[in-house]
Amino acid sequence: MATAPGDLPAAPDWPPAGESPARRRDRSRPVSPGDIARLTSMRQHLKAIDNAHGGGAALPMAHWYLRREVLPLLNGSSGDHAIYTLIDVVTQFQHDVGWMAYDADQQPLATQYFHAALRLAHTAGNRLLGARVLAAMSHQAIYLGHLREAIDFIQAARNLTRQIATPRTVAMLAAMEACAQRPVTPGRAGRP
How far is residue 8's CA from residue 1's CA, in Å, rounded to a whole number? Predict the structure, then answer.
């Protein structure tokens, strides 16, 4: 037996009359461990799509999900540990979406996401993640032919991690700086 749309009972989480779902979603609420697990899982799924099919395939979904589902959680309240974990996950998500935009040759959007990720890494005090974002920004600057900017980004990353970097991180940052020190033909740079 079919029912008309007006005959359906209201779902328990149905927004009150006159309130749009988007407005309801923007309300602050505490961040739960389930939220962090969901975001981490979605980030991994979108990254897998990106790796398999390129940034152009995953970018629209990742951009939508980040703006509609992830960023509103930053307005939520939670304990110190949970909020720093959330900020780290959101930073990594923005970093990934920045790479997707880079791969899809949407450089202004990539720049926006890289800058947003860097701000959040700074907010969380996560120097290693901040250095990773600065390395991505350096890579993009090399691709765009902004070599002085690329050198500045990578030197900032090296300074940021001077006391805490692993040998692998030191080597990666040194290699990125070496790339920035020599001219690169746009379009030939690969992801580090």
Answer: 13
